[in-house]
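Lecture 7, part 2: worked example. A protein chain together with heme C.
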Amino acid sequence: MFIKTIAAISFLLLMIIFLGCKNSDPNHLYAEWRIAGGTNELTHYSSLTQIDTNNVNQLQVAWVYHSEKNDSTQFGSMQCNPIIIGNILYGVSPKLKLFAIDAATGIQQWQFDPTDSIANKSWHRKSVNMNRGVAYWEEGNDKRIIYTVGSVAYEVNADNGKLIPSFGKNGGINLNLGLDRNESTVFVAPTSPVTVYKNLFFLSGMVGDETPGHIRAFDVKTGKQQWIFHTIPYPGEPGYETWEDSTAYKYLGSTNSWAGFSLDKKRGILFAPIGNPTNDFYGGQRLGKGLYGNCLVALDAATGKLLWHFQTVHHDVWDMDLPAAPALVTIMRDGKPIDAVAQTTKTGFVFIFERETGKPLFPIEERPVATNTSLNKEKLWPTQPMPLLPKPFVRQVFTEGDLNTILGDSNFQDIKSRYSSYRSGNMFTPPSKEGTIILPGYDGGGEWGGPAVDPTTNLLYVNANEMAWVLNMVENKPDKKSIRNNLEAGTSLYGLYCMGCHGPEQRGAGDYPSIVGADKKYTNEKLLELLSTGRRMMPGFNNLAKEEKQAITAFILNDKNLQKKIYTGPVEKIRKAPTALYGFTGYNKFLTKEGYPAISPPWGTLNAINLNTGELVWKIPFGEFKELKEKGIPTTGRENYGGPLVTAGGVLLIGASADGKFRAINKRTGAILWETDLPAPGVATPSVYEVSGKQYVVIACGGSKWGGKKSDAYIAFALPKK
Ligand code: HEC
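Predicted complex, written out as structure tokens:
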């Protein structure tokens, strides 16, 4: 009997150990893709091993899903990281339709078109932007997909694609409400997936320049707003004193957490990366350190209370938003595990903190930076934080020695003479009227794709751009004379609200289209509508009065009759230009005559950094120009957007590059093991999953960002049948 009891107890103990192991088994945690980014830790890691370094070169297309049925009219770029629940994949089309497909075959189960929805119609907000992913919530048989389209958050039944009528109003909530500002002037359009915690979900979003990017929690079941964290603090809240203007919280905008969140579910901590306040490049009207601009904040997920924060750039005037949610990792120090949070940045630094306290895990020094600005009323912050480790993963200084010499002498002389007319130096060189070289560029360094981390080695993988831009500031002369007609008003308003993207001569630059000849394409009514709704990366302008919009369209459409009409709208903005004593002439890359970067290669890189030691383990130029390669020029790297994922099978899988390739890379060495051409650049992060014992990797390819290549395809790869 004694022996029997011992045996029974041992058996029980074994069971407990076995079950205990099973629950905390990292492989179990990482075998699915239930959350965009893999898990709440946002490590982009999968424990699946079927596809490995030996067989990855045999990958074949398993299925292709055309999310817009090959309709090739108007696609924006698709940046969605799809989620896989059981054997169903949920993703978003270029026109932001939500779909469910069989993850093994690509066969559609249902599609939800937000333009048909009742909730959307009742708010007359059609603004369509981008979507980088959706979220899943379940309770028993109640299974829901939560996703945002423009200013609306929807909940859709995951089984049949029908709106959940008990959520908000007919299945949606209007995100422009609940911000303590006049609803008709705000514009919120989250582009990142919401984060779910118990019966709450969290969002902030892309916002208009006069809309604050406060972080909010909503009840999953009702859609009611549960808490709000003011990213521009109110009187009495910590950080309020960091704004010289005590009324900043009433009118300033942005300071938004557009890149999504990571979540420590066990501790109930939400980690939010925040962008800079309005205006991006001129801080003379928002003096001070400006918390919580450019901060990583840790919030109590249940209440929204601030636990700690770290500001990565003080008083930012370089558009150095924190571009991605941080990865939650467990690093090893002196043989002991420390739960940490690793934040990649546009500047090329990786900041690593202890998760509960925010204590830096490598020393960070406040170092003096240039403050000699020629812009009126501007006061730059005298120091900036710089971690001593890891070393930056991109160049942060542009000297003459960094000019591109690989394209021959005449090219070099041209860029050299332009270079000498600009202000240059390190990444904190003050913006100027003569032009300041911005490096790392507005899109990083690291960008919204975020890093991947292998929890078994603590290597962090981050893809990066090394593109220099030129920032030219212009003074917006306050208009003292009377503003008589639509032409005068429209010209000024264009300078205040449109020139930043469409340029002083309306010719656009980079991702922003030329609007010269818009009169051939748009009637007055159509253009007014576009200004209200916005479209993809163009925001809506509900903050403008209808007379102001009318003046702008009269100016753009060159409509002489409308231009002559007496202007009766508000003039304060034009006169005082409250948020814009200075504007800038547009997002201009520093390029050679042929359009290659004026900086020497590499122009894009992929980096592996050891988070335990802070050391760079390997770095490769990432992406290529075929024509340069054919001339025998070593791989130059190329601009890239969207992130990597890493697997226990030893491979890093990544699209991202403008060259339109999808690649598998050896995670230990950086060697390219396999590559294939996508129908359009895969400007998105891939997902890995398994159905019926077979491992798949899937990526959205809709890179209308480059070369006019458009697609609506989701492509899954798998190994051939044995
Ligand atoms: C943040 C950058 C940004 C700002 C500010 C901006 N736009 Fe745009 N605009 C865009 C982008 C991006 C597009 C392309 C939208 C798309 O993908 O369809 C666009 C498209 C347009 C188009 C349509 C072009 C076409 O060929 O169909 C017009 C017209 C236009 N913008 C006018 C304006 C006016 C007027 C303003 C100022 C009130 C303005 N934009 C402010 C980024 C911007």
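Residues 76, 497-498, 500-502, 511-513, 515, 518, 521-522, 527, 530-531, 535-539, 541, 552, 556 surround heme C (CB under 6 Å). Residues 1-5, 11-24 have pLDDT under 50 and may be disordered. Keep this in mind for problem set question 3.
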